[in-house]
Amino acid sequence: MNQTSDGAGTKKPDGWGGNDFRKILTNQLTYSLSKDMYSATQRDKYTATALSVRARIVKDWIDCQQSYYRLDAKRLYYLSLEFLMGRLLKNYLINVDLLDEYREAMDVLAIRLEDTFEYEWDAGLGNGGLGRLAACFMDSMATLNYPCYGYGIRYEYGIFTQRIVDGYQAEAPDNWLRYGNPWEFPRPELLYPVRFYGRVEKHSARTEWVDTSEILAMAYDYPVPGFGTTTVNTLRLWGAKSTRDFDFDYFNSGDYVRAVENKTNSENISKVLYPNDLSLAGKELRLKQQYFFVAATLADILRRFKKSCNNLNMLPNKVAIQLNDTHPSIAIPEMMRILIDDEGLHWDIASKLTRETFAYTNHTILPEALETWSEDLIGHLLPRHLQIIEEMDRKFHIQVARRFPEDFDKASHMGIITGNAGKVVNMARLAIVGSHAVNGVSRLHSDLLKSHVFNDFYMMYPEKFQNVTNGITHRRWLLSANPGLSTLITDAIGDGWTRDLDELKKLEPLTEDTAFRDRFNAVKRENKLRLCAAMYRVFNCTFEPDFLLDCQVKRFHEYKRQLLNVFHVITLYNRLREGIVPDGFVPRVVLFSGKSAPGYFMCKLIIKLIHNVSEIVAAHPLVKDKLQVVFVPNYGVTIAEVTMPAADLSEQISTAGFEASGTGNMKFALNGALTIGTLDGANIEIREEVGEENFFLFGHKAEEIFELRKNYDPRKYIEGNKELAQVMHQLESGFFSPEEPGLFQPIVQALMDGDHYCVLADYSLYIACQEEVTRAYGNRDQWTRMAILNTARSGKFSSDRAINEYARNIWNISPVTR
């Protein structure tokens, strides 16, 4: 096919321009959907548009994959239980540089292109930052021409749809596949058996896992086109299929439930992201999910490897596998099982090849988030893998004893398997021992891994530990999400920033340009109006766009301290109703959005508190025109894309030392929001980049938190601050829940019993910092200068930079261009 190059560097095939787009769209409507303009629904028009874009991508996709084989390139395999992709149509149109052409051609379907975007559901393949990071990384891998594959699970129902009923979070199924998915390509020819249960037989020369129960993993592929390049990588997701659809004998006897029971039970594995694991059955299903997807993935990786190489000793030279958190870490004993039992390699050789192939990214220091599985559960579900883990643990004990001969207890303290009667397998330790590289995701986080969480392992393997600070793809989070600001930037400095985010530094001199500041402010207000319209359209609520927009949008967790933010709201409410309105006071909208885990009682209660406070604030005649509290339900990528461009203030207020990195903080800063935050996660590096004077810092530092908690007395802070005492009394007395006075007593009790996340200790510092925010916003010219500098100095936080660091320092892979 003859091709021509466009201005962005993407090659466009001949026949993709002018009226040809209209013909392509009508052909898809006719021949793919069997519809005409009389019968086509608005959703049909979206689907026809998506299918036409898909058709544009597939030729490059096939050519790209063939080039990897032809060049025998070393490939990266990114294993993640989450890929929070968001809507793809606009993103793909931007990446292949066809947005304007499609916008013009949509008149043939009698619909605006922007309206078609609203018919795409967010893919329910993730929960929060972990999955969104994986999606950003996939975009950067393709844009930078790295030969990479993402692997995960095709969840039929995603995590859950959040609804608010009387102020409480209620969970409903996220049926995101209800109308099909035009982006996925089912691959029924790629079916891999995945085994569970059974027993282990030892023979003289080998070990065999027998009498197992099988489930089939079927591949579903998504193309991932890079920006301004012909590289199209693959995201491959696994769906669970029964080995037989139904039992014909039961069916003939009229027992129709029993006839399909095996099929239903088998396919539960890929039904829901993070099934509730409070029960033993829930725990077993979670572990099944994790093994299911890594077993199918490794089978697929080795199939691809063997197409061009039969020498397993070359595996680390051709394959790099990145474990995104501990969820896929069962892949390490699975690789060992394959190399030893199926391929007949000696343990030491298999161990070396496995270690040199795998790398592990840690995403948390929270003890409860450092995954463990009971030895009994692994032994029941994966008996051969437990044997391998036990042998890895035994050999590791020997290594520790040799490394620290003077410390007899260190080996048992560092074990992969710990405990006495109820032994558990520590998956993070398994990942560290079984990988050649371990990285944290911000400088502080990586330092804490080395100095606290895994200090013994760092002393054992100092060469393994690295840092790769997270990043975001600015193609989605600025170019796509904030078209007004993107146009303003391009008009001012050109479009080089779309490929090299450091180009944004050219904006710095424009902070003194009055016309540029005015346009910047106009874009911000337009983005607020866009958010208002979206909230009214979807949730029938809105806010005052001329107020300071103060946003905390993220997953709910006590360490993220949405509660501290609520305490500030209550304090403002108390001041305003008492007539305390200081000079220079700025009206404020405080916007919350985020989901709590279904079983997380405390966070669900905080969501209820936010709604009750919102109602009381809105009902007070002296307060409602100066303060608004808004909760946007069902937070996801699409809501984030309209919220972050509109925000004035970004709340990044986690307890110092608890947030690994954060990426929402980067998205807000890139879009010109100022941050109020602690020295936690990537906040530290953001503050260094944007300038201390352009960041609102408060709170105890991580090392101070560690010391503070040794002799922590919550009452000291309450007794020493009248406003805090008032807030606590209001919660305890039922001021915000008059019909149920004791409703928020558990929050009070948790704070009085230890205040694990130091909400009370940081309260007065936070309130003082918020007063500084108010004063700063009162000087709009200076605020705008600060906002522009946040955008201009966000270059470090591109996922392109992060991926280049992984490729160079961990994966040892090179770009492949055609």
Brief summary:
With 818 residues, this protein is an alpha/beta fold.
Strand count: 24
Strand content: 5-15%
For the biggest sheet, the summary is: 9 strands, mixed
> How far apart, in Å, are the first and last alpha carbons?
15 Å
Structural class: alpha/beta
Number of helices: 34
Q: What is the general shape?
A: globular
Tell me, rounded to a whole number, the average pLDDT.
94
Give the spatial strand order of the biggest sheet. 7-10-11-4-3-12-13-17-18
The share of residues in helices is 40-55%
Cα radius of gyration in angstroms: 27 Å
Which runs of at least 5 residues are low in confidence (pLDDT < 50)?
1-11
Structure commentary:
The chain has 34 helices and 24 strands. α1 packs across α2, α12 crosses α15 and α14 packs across α15. β23, α27 and β24 form a beta-alpha-beta unit. The strands form 6 sheets. Strands 7-10-11-4-3-12-13-17-18 form a 9-stranded mixed sheet. A 6-stranded parallel sheet has the order 21-20-19-22-23-24, with helices on both faces. Strands 14-16-15 form a 3-stranded antiparallel sheet. Helix content is 47%, strand content 15%. The radius of gyration is 27 Å and the shape is globular. The longest helix has 30 residues. With 818 residues, the protein is an alpha/beta fold.
